[in-house]
Design goal:
The structure is a homodimer of 141-residue chains. By secondary structure, the first copy, chain A, is mostly helical. Helices cover 74% and strands 6% of the residues of chain A. In chain A, a hairpin with a 3-residue loop joins strand 1 and strand 2. The mean pLDDT of chain A is 96. Chains A and B meet through helix 5, helix 6 and helix 7 of A and helix 5, helix 6 and helix 7 of B. The structure holds a DNA duplex (30 and 30 nucleotides). Chains A, B: InterPro entries: DtxR_MntR_Metal-Reg, Fe_dep_repressor, Fe_dep_repressor_sf, HTH_DTXR, HTH_tscrpt_reg_MntR, Iron_dep_repressor, WH-like_DNA-bd_sf, WH_DNA-bd_sf. Chains A, B: This is HTH-type transcriptional regulator MntR. Chains A, B: Pfam families: Fe_dep_repr_C, Fe_dep_repress. Chains A, B: Homodimer.
Chain lengths: 141, 141
DNA sequence: TACTTGGCGTAGCCATTGCTATATTTCCCC
DNA sequence: GGGGAAATATAGCAATGGCTACGCCAAGTA
């Protein structure tokens, strides 16, 4: 079973490969805001657990297991980002919050959040009304 | 700054004192499903950080700082439970999901979720419409 | 008062995951 | 093809927060 930290790395790696075709240690480190030495260490663990195949100094590729997991993680991450954006969370807080919670929600909750997003997408005036509530609450304090 | 684990303990302690008037090591341990020795260790840390005052073998009381924090944590927990309930998450999943995410949300996100709840409270038909979206999405699959 | 027992505390271990400092490899440019 | 800079790897340390094993206190009972 993957720890939250392992999921963070896998997700990042998947995204980098998806966008740039490869995932370098330094890119992963920058994205997760950790030092390169931490990345190397974690990559070795992910290799040992068969999420990827790693060759020292030469790079890595995801195994089918790693790809499948990575895609699920990335989709879930994007969903949660959209959710927080929709309800008005400040952009500066979104990445950190999503990274914190994404590993701890059941698929039931994920599905319900998906539905909630669809609810706001279908009628944009709903988001406007939400913002009105916000303004009223702010005016009270 | 309190770590997630420290928050778990504080919240539990606050709730125990709120409900029973006192918080024994064994009650805390049972509630959090850890061993009593772990509780003692954490209590000492919370004492050192002035969240509570602890006397060996005799018990503990929360400082004003600890009470304030404990109340906030408990309120946050309840808010998140209400949120998941409102969007239709199955009751069996709620407690575990809230336990997982409660320590990882900025107060900005908490406020936005509070607003979202108020939005649904002000007009109950909104929740009905959300459930309609859910049914439509379920029908598609 | 003395004993027993259950609750509590301490010491020390382990895993996780970050860090710094240092070594090694690769790549690019001359 | 060789030298140096950039990238990557390794070693070893620290904090966190569990655990087990064992020692200590104190309340209830005889």
């Amino acid at each position: 079973m993957a720890t939250p930290s392992m999921e963070d790395y896998l997700e990042r790696i998947y995204k980098l490969i998806d966008e740039k075709g490869y995932a370098r240690v330094s890119d992963i480190a920058e994205g997760l805001e950790v030092h390169p030495s931490s990345v190397t260490k974690m990559i070795q663990k992910l290799d040992k657990d068969n999420y990827l195949i790693y060759e020292k100094y030469r790079g890595l590729i995801l195994t089918p297991k790693g790809k499948k997991m990575g895609k699920r993680l990335m989709d879930r991450h994007e969903l949660l980002e959209n959710f927080l954006t929709t309800i008005g969370v400040h952009e500066d807080n979104i990445y950190k919050d999503v990274e914190g919670i994404e590993h701890h929600l059941s698929w039931d909750s994920i599905t319900c959040i998906e539905t909630l997003l669809e609810y706001f997408r279908r009628d944009p005036s709903r988001a406007d009304e939400l913002m009105n509530v916000r303004k009223e609450l702010e005016a009270e304090n």
